[in-house]
User: What shape does this take?
Amino acid sequence: MSVRVMVVDDHPMWREGVARDLTEAGHVVVATSGEGRQAVRVAAAVRPDVVVLDLQLPDISGVEVIHGLRAALPDVRVLMLSASGEQQSVLDAVKAGATGYLVKSAAPAEFLDAVRRAAAGEPVFTPGLAGLVLGEYRRLAAGGPNGDAAARDGTAPRLTDRETEVLRLVAKGMSYKQIAQRLGLSHRTVQNHVQNTLGKLHLHNRVELTRYAIEQGLDE
Assistant: This one.
């Protein structure tokens, strides 16, 4: 699957190297940028599927860039690629709307797989960080609903048994591939179930869906 990608990083050699790896893997690099504000403006014009974004930029923070990108392009996937694996940095990025978070020590094959999965809407994290994010969701869920429309007013549409089954595995942090293997379904079928569930619950991405599922106790 060819993905339209924008690379945002203030180090020219790193930025060019990432762009080259993406191009050689068959993806389309629609733009690169070394500054946050410029990145938001350019992204609105070129409309990438995935933005690969560094956390530290010279003008504004990566978190501010995420907010700008999501305001301009609500469906864009943001994959953080940062030297920092600190807990607060990860949580701030995910809460702002990042689809995934990799540290720059990730192997090229891991990075390219993360881009593909992020484009499909899957949360992707450096090993060890997924548990951190799920733990934070559980902590927040313990304090009550997060304000999502379906959870807030108690009128969440009825899900099919299969959708509920898939949602339960999403809440456990499993990837589409793992869910497909567990349930004996195709990868595409799992994606369709997730997209149908997102539509029914008026949620925007799998990060929000995971949070919702944990609030409903489906991760137990």
